[in-house]
Design brief:
elongated; Trna Endonuclease, Chain: A, domain 1; 16 helices; 5-stranded mixed beta sheet; Rossmann fold; 410 residues; 6-stranded mixed beta sheet
């Protein structure tokens, strides 16, 4: 492959057609042609590439809000001349932007005899525009996305779509045995629901404490676990077993006590950090055991990579949201939303619309969506949910099909 290379790209709202060539070519320099609307996306794509281990000198050229064929062609011609003068070998990616931008860029590449490519996300291929040297000179013989997929991780895709931070998630393995037990022993799982959310439970009606003092009042309350469940989680670190009966974890007791009596400037950050292990313990028995089952099955399926359970997605110094399960299928982000089901199952249909909108924000158009329901409805409710899921492009997972070899197949 001749070196060094430079990549000229047209930027649009969908970042994957711009991110993938960066990972495939690993150019020394990149020129992004943006409109005011897509200028921020240019920086996000570059940051996503950095998360995949690809760095380069970036120049973002801002065009007018509605660039025509002549304006775009002129911008490409200028970029090609500057790159060649710098001793770089320019390649054009004309996939993004508007149709007029693509036409102008392609026409310029044809006149300047510059290699060009189109990113075919449906078929997973880089297509040669045949405007200059053969694309295989730069890519090698494999023009599929397969080599790129090996370099891609969940965080690179999500960051390219505008989120600043994606954590690695939690290790589900210490909880797998308990999660499977709760899945296959519904009476014990329902008893756990009562111990957590029942009238005499830790959090009646799922109302979570709002102050350090209120959380402290729960730390000495025993948790009524079935004996078999207690044995399975004893070594997981999820609960405290220093007394005769298990309790919520005690690791942040001192911090909660300090926060309950002192005024501190960083109260919000310290408070959320202190209650996090308590929330995780409650959430596991309240339903996130099902997330563990799904994450374990996804990792074991062989179809998905970089499976992450309970990763935080959000801003570096701001709001973050906890996802249930994220993974990759080739270069496509996989988002799995997990619901226990049970009473109020009609809310599952409404959740489908929320899931579609949310996944587009973190994975764009090319995301794969799953809704996993531990206690699925029956009869007409299930038929209605399945019909709406098909319309929304969401695949349903239940305990009945989770173990199937095709559950996560494309």
């Amino acid at each position: 492959m001749p070196q060094p290379t430079a990549l000229i790209q047209l930027i649009s709202e969908q970042p994957m057609p711009n991110l993938l060539p960066l990972l495939a070519l690993r150019p020394a320099r990149v020129v992004h042609l943006c409109t005011p609307r897509t200028a921020l996306r240019s920086a996000q794509i570059a940051e996503g590439a950095r998360h995949a281990g690809v760095t380069f000198d970036l120049e973002s050229v801002q065009l007018t809000p509605m660039p025509d064929i002549q304006e775009t062609g002129g911008a490409v011609r200028t970029a090609v001349a500057e790159l060649r003068a710098a001793g770089l070998n320019p390649i054009l990616n004309f996939t993004g932007g508007t149709k007029l931008m693509s036409i102008g860029a392609f026409a310029c590449a044809l006149r300047e005899k510059v290699a060009s490519l189109y990113v075919d996300t449906d078929d997973g291929l880089f297509l040669d525009g045949h405007t200059g040297p053969d694309l295989r000179v730069y890519f090698g013989d494999d023009l599929t996305f397969t080599p790129v997929a090996r370099r891609l991780a969940v965080n690179a895709v999500v960051v390219a779509h505008g989120r600043e931070r994606v954590t690695g998630g939690r290790d589900w393995r210490p909880f797998t045995a308990a999660a499977r037990h709760l899945l296959t022993h519904s009476s014990e799982e329902q008893a756990m629901q009562g111990a957590i959310y029942g009238e005499a439970g830790l959090l009646p009606a799922a109302k979570e404490p709002r102050t350090p003092a209120a959380w402290l009042s729960l730390l000495d309350r025993p948790l009524a676990l079935p004996g078999s469940v207690a044995g399975l989680v004893r070594t997981s670190g999820l609960l405290d077993f220093s007394t005769d009966t298990p309790r919520l974890p005690q690791s942040t007791r001192a911090e909660l006590e300090a926060l309950s009596r002192e005024r501190v400037s960083d109260f919000r950050a310290r408070y959320f950090a202190a209650v996090r292990p308590l929330q995780q313990a409650v959430a596991f028995f309240g339903g996130s055991w099902w997330e563990v089952c799904v994450a374990e099955a996804a990792a074991r399926s062989g179809f998905l990579r970089d499976v992450r359970w309970s990763p935080d997605v959000g801003e570096r110094a701001g709001f973050s949201a906890e996802e249930d399960v994220l993974a990759l299928d080739g270069v496509r982000l996989v988002v799995i939303s997990c619901k226990r089901g049970g009473p109020g199952r009609q809310r599952l249909v409404a959740h489908l619309a929320e899931l579609t909108g949310h996944t587009e924000q973190i994975g764009g158009r090319f995301v794969r969506r799953f809704l996993a329901v531990a206690r699925p409805p029956a009869g007409r409710e299930w038929d209605a949910l399945r019909a709406r899921a098909n319309e929304a492009g969401v695949r349903l997972l239940t305990p009945a099909n989770l173990e199937s070899s095709s559950a996560f197949a494309p």
